[in-house]
Design goal:
This protein is of the alpha+beta class. Helices cover 27% and strands 22% of the residues. The chain is built from 4 helices and 5 strands. It has a 5-stranded antiparallel β-sheet with strand order 2-1-5-4-3, with helices on both faces. Strand 1 and strand 2 form a beta hairpin. 25% of the residues are buried.
Amino acid sequence: MPGIDACLEEAMTLPGALGAAIVDWTSGLALGTAGQSPNGDHEATAAETAELARAAAEYSAFAPTARPPTPARPPTRAPAPASGPDGHAQAPATTPGSTAASAGDKGPPVEDLIVTTRTGYHILSFVETTFDSSVFLHLWLDRDTGNLALARIRLGQLAERLVLG
């Protein structure tokens, strides 16, 4: 489980990586940085990306809620309740994204954000922490040499393994 420095070092090994940071999105402060910054100032970039992360995490359009209602369908005959090995009826399972399933979920409200510019990609991958889960990894990739799919997967793996102490 890597700490901040090891996490940033590993992120910078990704093809096309130009810069990386670990940012607290509630304060806008960079907890660590590596490589370049898109605007030449890591702290300003941290504050700007934190605003984007905060908006995605706090606006209800992106919050994990129940799935939108499905269009009305003609009535069908209800299936018989499933029975368990003991012959008793079982409660229906909740589906991912349903209110019941989401009510117990912990961690960041958004998994990641991707911003595409003419020259690069910015990936913000939210980190689940034991405290208030207000941290994300920001990776800036060169559009010509970076691999967006690979970077997103690897950044998500780094976010899962990151140890903040």
